[in-house]
Design a protein that fits this description.
It is built from three helices and no strands. With about 150 residues, the protein is mostly helical. It has one domain. InterPro entries: bMERB_dom, F-actin_Monoox_Mical.
Protein backbone atom coordinates (compact mmCIF):
# COMPACT_ATOMS: atom_id res chain seq x y z
CA UNK A 1 0.00 0.00 0.00
CA UNK A 2 1.90 3.08 -1.20
CA UNK A 3 2.53 5.96 1.17
CA UNK A 4 0.59 8.46 -0.97
CA UNK A 5 -2.54 6.28 -0.77
CA UNK A 6 -2.28 6.10 3.01
CA UNK A 7 -1.77 9.86 3.14
CA UNK A 8 -4.84 10.46 0.98
CA UNK A 9 -6.93 8.10 3.11
CA UNK A 10 -5.74 9.78 6.31
CA UNK A 11 -6.49 13.24 4.94
CA UNK A 12 -9.94 12.11 3.83
CA UNK A 13 -10.68 10.76 7.33
CA UNK A 14 -9.41 13.98 8.93
CA UNK A 15 -11.54 16.19 6.70
CA UNK A 16 -14.55 13.94 7.33
CA UNK A 17 -14.03 14.30 11.10
CA UNK A 18 -13.73 18.09 10.76
CA UNK A 19 -16.99 18.21 8.79
CA UNK A 20 -18.65 16.00 11.40
CA UNK A 21 -17.48 18.26 14.25
CA UNK A 22 -18.65 21.36 12.38
CA UNK A 23 -22.01 19.73 11.72
CA UNK A 24 -22.40 18.90 15.41
CA UNK A 25 -21.50 22.46 16.41
CA UNK A 26 -24.01 23.84 13.92
CA UNK A 27 -26.69 21.49 15.20
CA UNK A 28 -26.04 22.53 18.80
CA UNK A 29 -26.22 26.20 17.86
CA UNK A 30 -29.48 25.66 15.94
CA UNK A 31 -30.96 24.02 19.03
CA UNK A 32 -29.78 26.93 21.20
CA UNK A 33 -31.37 29.37 18.76
CA UNK A 34 -34.64 27.44 18.91
CA UNK A 35 -34.67 27.65 22.72
CA UNK A 36 -33.85 31.36 22.62
CA UNK A 37 -36.64 31.90 20.09
CA UNK A 38 -39.14 30.35 22.47
CA UNK A 39 -37.88 32.47 25.38
CA UNK A 40 -38.06 35.66 23.32
CA UNK A 41 -41.54 34.73 22.17
CA UNK A 42 -42.72 34.30 25.77
CA UNK A 43 -41.16 37.62 26.82
CA UNK A 44 -42.77 39.32 23.82
CA UNK A 45 -46.19 37.94 24.69
CA UNK A 46 -45.87 39.24 28.27
CA UNK A 47 -44.84 42.69 27.08
CA UNK A 48 -47.68 42.84 24.55
CA UNK A 49 -50.19 41.92 27.25
CA UNK A 50 -48.77 44.61 29.52
CA UNK A 51 -49.02 47.19 26.75
CA UNK A 52 -52.61 46.23 25.88
CA UNK A 53 -53.93 45.82 29.41
CA UNK A 54 -52.23 48.73 31.15
CA UNK A 55 -53.60 51.71 29.26
CA UNK A 56 -53.70 53.76 32.45
CA UNK A 57 -50.05 53.18 33.35
CA UNK A 58 -47.64 56.12 33.08
CA UNK A 59 -46.40 57.05 29.62
CA UNK A 60 -42.77 56.46 30.56
CA UNK A 61 -43.65 52.88 31.65
CA UNK A 62 -45.37 52.22 28.33
CA UNK A 63 -42.38 53.68 26.48
CA UNK A 64 -40.07 51.39 28.42
CA UNK A 65 -42.21 48.34 27.56
CA UNK A 66 -42.33 49.38 23.92
CA UNK A 67 -38.55 49.75 23.84
CA UNK A 68 -38.15 46.33 25.44
CA UNK A 69 -40.48 44.86 22.83
CA UNK A 70 -38.51 46.47 20.00
CA UNK A 71 -35.29 45.12 21.52
CA UNK A 72 -36.79 41.61 21.58
CA UNK A 73 -37.82 41.95 17.92
CA UNK A 74 -34.29 43.07 17.04
CA UNK A 75 -32.78 40.09 18.92
CA UNK A 76 -35.17 37.73 17.17
CA UNK A 77 -34.25 39.18 13.77
CA UNK A 78 -30.55 38.74 14.55
CA UNK A 79 -31.17 35.13 15.54
CA UNK A 80 -33.12 34.52 12.35
CA UNK A 81 -30.21 35.87 10.33
CA UNK A 82 -27.80 33.62 12.19
CA UNK A 83 -30.11 30.66 11.68
CA UNK A 84 -30.26 31.25 7.93
CA UNK A 85 -26.45 31.50 7.84
CA UNK A 86 -26.23 28.19 9.69
CA UNK A 87 -28.66 26.55 7.29
CA UNK A 88 -26.47 27.66 4.39
CA UNK A 89 -23.47 26.21 6.24
CA UNK A 90 -25.34 22.90 6.61
CA UNK A 91 -26.03 22.80 2.88
CA UNK A 92 -22.39 23.62 2.21
CA UNK A 93 -21.26 20.78 4.49
CA UNK A 94 -23.52 18.33 2.69
CA UNK A 95 -22.14 19.42 -0.66
CA UNK A 96 -18.60 19.23 0.66
CA UNK A 97 -19.21 15.66 1.85
CA UNK A 98 -20.70 14.70 -1.50
CA UNK A 99 -17.75 16.29 -3.30
CA UNK A 100 -15.30 14.25 -1.23
CA UNK A 101 -17.18 11.04 -1.98
CA UNK A 102 -17.25 11.81 -5.69
CA UNK A 103 -13.55 12.73 -5.63
CA UNK A 104 -12.76 9.36 -4.08
CA UNK A 105 -14.82 7.48 -6.67
CA UNK A 106 -13.30 9.47 -9.51
CA UNK A 107 -9.82 8.88 -8.19
CA UNK A 108 -10.42 5.12 -8.15
CA UNK A 109 -11.45 5.20 -11.82
CA UNK A 110 -8.60 7.50 -12.80
CA UNK A 111 -6.02 5.30 -11.06
CA UNK A 112 -7.08 2.39 -13.25
CA UNK A 113 -4.93 1.78 -16.33
CA UNK A 114 -6.62 3.05 -19.51
CA UNK A 115 -6.11 -0.31 -21.16
CA UNK A 116 -7.99 -2.06 -18.32
CA UNK A 117 -10.99 0.28 -18.37
CA UNK A 118 -14.20 -1.07 -19.81
CA UNK A 119 -16.65 1.18 -21.67
CA UNK A 120 -18.85 1.03 -18.54
CA UNK A 121 -15.92 2.27 -16.45
CA UNK A 122 -15.34 5.19 -18.82
CA UNK A 123 -19.04 6.02 -18.81
CA UNK A 124 -19.15 5.87 -14.98
CA UNK A 125 -16.05 8.07 -14.79
CA UNK A 126 -17.68 10.68 -17.03
CA UNK A 127 -20.89 10.56 -14.99
CA UNK A 128 -18.98 11.05 -11.74
CA UNK A 129 -17.07 13.94 -13.29
CA UNK A 130 -20.37 15.50 -14.38
CA UNK A 131 -21.82 15.11 -10.86
CA UNK A 132 -18.66 16.59 -9.38
CA UNK A 133 -18.96 19.67 -11.58
CA UNK A 134 -22.61 20.06 -10.51
CA UNK A 135 -21.65 19.87 -6.83
CA UNK A 136 -18.87 22.42 -7.30
CA UNK A 137 -21.31 24.75 -9.08
CA UNK A 138 -23.85 24.39 -6.26
CA UNK A 139 -21.16 25.19 -3.70
CA UNK A 140 -20.19 28.22 -5.76
CA UNK A 141 -23.82 29.42 -5.74
CA UNK A 142 -23.91 29.09 -1.94
CA UNK A 143 -20.69 31.05 -1.60
CA UNK A 144 -22.04 33.78 -3.88
CA UNK A 145 -25.25 33.87 -1.82
CA UNK A 146 -23.24 34.30 1.38
CA UNK A 147 -21.14 37.03 -0.19
CA UNK A 148 -24.21 38.91 -1.45
CA UNK A 149 -25.80 38.60 1.98
CA UNK A 150 -22.65 39.90 3.66
CA UNK A 151 -22.44 42.86 1.27
CA UNK A 152 -26.11 43.72 1.75
CA UNK A 153 -25.63 43.74 5.52
CA UNK A 154 -22.80 46.24 5.18
Amino acid sequence: YPTWKRTLARRARESQMKRFCRAQAIQRRLEEIEVTFRELEQQGIKLEKLLRDENESPADQQTQWTNQLLYLVQKKNNLMTEESDLMIAVQELKLEEKQCQLDEKLRSYMNKEDTLKTPEDEKAEQEILKQLVEVVNKRNVLIQLQEEKRLSEL
